Amino acid sequence: MTDYQRQLVTDNHNLIYRFLQKEKLNMEDWYDLAAIGMCKAAKTFNEGTSKFSTYAFKCMFNEVYSEKRKELNKRTIPEDKILYYNTEYEDESGNKVEFIEKIQSDYNVESDCIHKVALKNALSKMKDKHKLIIDLLMKGYKQVEIMKIAGCSQPQVSRVMKRFVDEYVKC
What we know:
By secondary structure, the protein is mainly alpha-helical. It contains 8 helices and 2 strands, in the order H-H-H-H-E-E-H-H-H-H.
């Protein structure tokens, strides 16, 4: 690094803390990578294009989140460790068997039908707006998102959900 680049890093050192705080990242875990991003920013900064702080934030972001992507990729299961349903293997007798044939099922058809009827009864007693709320809940939307879509308050979403659960449990 040149003296000018070292001075840029020294003068703007607090940007590292501000960046980590803004991104809600742990100082101890991510400080080093943010500092590397800051140094890369100082090395590649072109004064005519933008403010150093803006550029440094982008460089720190890229450095930290490229490491996060690497960590996420490590969590993926290697292809040779995945067992598919239609995978064939030989059993003790030497016969070819598909893996799916050996999976035991706890699926209870009768219980599933009872739940579907109870769900249908509970929904039939609700207003259309409340059905929309329950439909969105069942699709995995959060209460705050439902509130915006359905045009109601979050406590109302919560009440509709509680009322639905009470009705559904009665059935």
